[in-house]
Design goal:
The protein is mainly alpha-helical. It has helices spanning 32-36, 72-78, 81-90, 96-108, 116-122, 129-139, 149-172, 185-194, 205-217, 225-234, 240-252, 259-273, 277-285, 306-321, 327-340, 343-347, 354-364, 372-393, 417-424, and strands spanning 3-8, 11-19, 25-27, 56-59, 64-67, 70-71. Bound molecules: coenzyme A.
């Protein structure tokens, strides 16, 4: 085993150097504070490994993303979302017999408790679906014992799609459509979203495949903001539903999963204002403008985001297969072309990320813009669950508790009220 030596205030300290299965190097500083009294400072955790994990591998320089060793391109081309859920959670793709059982379980646990329907009544129609989703997922812990984790994993995966579609029906004032056991996971979701009573609804195979693709591409992304939140909350011993609900809240932010909604709003704003794409890109480069090119840049990918490449091709194909044209796709492609040849974006290694093209596909499927982040959450569920399960099973897991570098006032006396008043005059 190799050693890294730290020279601190004239003293040397040795730390083991660990190597991941893909050759990544990590300095194990677990003993740093005990040995030296010092801590590391890494705001945003860009250089900090918070755990070891065997679920997802990303090489941001080479644009590689693999779930349990399988390239995202292979899974996107051949697997169903349910198979990918199984892969992430159990470590291997299912055999046909395993898939049959898993699929059946996911179907049979789709109903939510009838009492939970009343919760939807309490939300205003304008409620953001992410507010409803996080509240409902946390509420599941009120109905199911936290001691049956394997079944709770099935319940969570299965009921989340019902909750997301009920949130949509609530927002448009339509009656809830119950899940149908004869349909697949994705078909079921689409019929709960778009069917209306007394009318037949059939999910187009093109839309069904596009939905599988989108969910697969979002299924895991190692220790990102929401996944780290799930692990952080779970490390305190909080139950599965509470931990995932926290992850949903973290995903909501515009710098994370909320970016997909912002991309479409940005594209619409460009078209409606008549502003040129080039002018928008210029504005996004100005620090004080408060404007960014949403859907561009990534903490890990510094060359290209393989998910964006897959989605760009899929957007073209799906629109063609559905006989649709979306002017926002033209604006997106124009923005991409301008940004990719602009030194500002080249120097900072800013490329389109998964959110840049996902919204075009969601729109083609009839999913409204404010539902996009909830769709991301639906896709990310198996990843959060797999990461939570891995953390719970890891004997070395401790409650997550970072340190800080204190930069506030040093010790001082409490002044009398008179002195404080005198100081303000
Ligand atoms: N538009 C314009 N400038 C951007 C940018 C964008 N989308 N993303 C990053 N930059 C600039 C930053 O201003 C910074 O410039 P500086 O070095 O002159 O200060 C530089 O690029 C590095 O960005 P930084 O914010 O430090 O990178 P990060 O790793 O902390 O953040 C993101 C990554 C994803 C949060 C960031 O790129 C971003 O906000 N993107 C838009 C939101 C988005 O699409 N999020 C979805 C991620 S999947």
């Amino acid at each position: 085993m190799s050693i890294a030596t730290l020279l601190l205030k004239g003293k040397e300290y040795d730390f083991p150097v660990l190597e991941g299965t893909e050759g990544e190097t990590a300095i194990d500083i677990t003993s740093l504070r005990a040995k030296s009294g010092a801590i590391t400072l890494d705001p945003g955790y860009a250089n900090t490994g918070s755990c070891t994990s065997a679920i997802t591998f990303i090489d941001g320089e080479k644009g590689i993303l693999r779930y349990r060793g399988h390239a995202i391109e292979d899974l996107a081309g051949t697997a169903s979302f349910v198979e990918v859920c199984y892969l992430l959670i159990h470590g291997e793709l299912p055999t046909p017999a395993e898939l049959l059982v898993f699929d059946d379980q996911l179907t049979r646990h789709s109903l939510i408790h009838e009492d939970m329907k009343k919760f939807f009544e309490g939300f205003p129609p304008s409620a953001h679906p992410m507010a409803i989703l996080s509240a409902m997922i946390a509420s599941l812990s009120a109905y199911y014992s936290e001691h049956d984790n394997e079944l709770n994993i099935i319940r969570l995966l299965s009921k989340a799609k019902t909750i997301v579609s009920f949130a949509y029906k609530k927002s448009i004032g339509q009656p809830f459509i119950y899940p149908c056991n004869a349909l697949s996971y994705t078909q079921n979701f689409m019929q709960m979203m778009f069917a209306v009573p007394a009318e037949d609804y059939v999910v187009s195979p093109v839309v069904d495949r596009a939905l599988n693709l989108l969910l697969i591409l979002h299924a895991d992304h190692e220790q990102n903001c929401s996944t780290s939140t799930v692990r952080m909350v779970g490390s305190s011993g909080a139950n599965l539903f509470a931990s995932i609900s926290a992850g949903i809240c973290a995903l909501w932010g515009p710098l994370h999963g909320g970016a997909n909604q912002q991309v479409i709003e940005m594209l619409q704003q460009i078209r409606q204002s008549g502003q040129s794409a080039r002018k928008f890109v210029e504005r996004a480069k100005e620090k004080d403008s408060g404007s960014k090119l949403m859907g561009f840049g990534h903490r890990v990918y510094k060359n290209f985001d393989p998910r964006a490449t897959i989605l760009k091709n899929a957007a073209d194909q799906v629109l063609a297969a559905l006989g649709m044209r979306d002017p926002l796709l033209d604006t997106a492609m124009e923005l991409e072309q301008i940004a990719l040849s602009d030194p500002y974006f080249i120097e900072r290694k800013l490329y389109p990320n998964v959110d840049f093209y996902s919204g075009i596909l969601y729109r083609a499927m009839g999913i409204p813009t404010n539902m996009f982040t909830a769709m991301f959450a639906l896709g990310r569920l198996p990843g959060w669950i797999a990461q939570w399960k891995e953390m719970v099973k890891e004997p070395k897991t401790k409650i997550n508790r970072p340190r800080q570098l204190y930069v506030g006032k040093t010790a001082r006396e409490v002044e009398s009220v008179e002195t404080r008043i005198a100081a303000t005059v």
